[in-house]
Amino acid sequence: MTSEVEQPTAMSEALGYEQARDELIEVVRRLEAGGTTLEESLALWERGEELAKVCRDRLDGARARLDAALAEEEPDPEEPEREDTP
């Protein structure tokens, strides 16, 4: 794989998850339909890899945010419970 695939372009990084996913679906549809030249197929494949990485990164970021939010809500078992008294 080329470094361009491993490091998405700035334009790809600016895509939201839904945009990247929708474009990836279109890339897959075009590849499955066939009728493209070898060069076009390779370019589509590379774009698909780039879009898949963007989607993975967005999902990983969402998972990290969710885990952080859940961790804030869970009491620390080693920390004694405090009573809120004025």
Summarize the structure.
This protein has helices at 3-6, 10-13, 17-33, 38-73.
Please describe what this structure looks like.
It is a single chain. This protein is an all-alpha fold and 86 residues long. It has helices at 3-6, 10-13, 17-33, 38-73. The longest helix is centred in the middle third of the chain and has 36 residues, at 38-73. 8% of the residues are buried. The model is unreliable at 1-6 (pLDDT under 50).
Number of helices: 4
Which sheet architecture does the biggest sheet show?
none
Rg (CA only): 21 Å
Strand content: under 5%
Helix content: over 70%
Give the overall silhouette. rod-shaped
Order of helices and strands: HHHH
Runs with pLDDT <50, length 5+? 1-6
**Measured distance between first and last alpha carbons:** 62 Å
How many DSSP-defined strands?
0
Instruction: Calculate the mean pLDDT score and round it.
Output: 85
What structural class do helix, strand and pairing data support?
mainly alpha
List keywords for this structure.
mainly alpha, 71% helix, 86 residues
Layout of secondary structure:
Blueprint: H1 3-6, H2 10-13, H3 17-33, H4 38-73
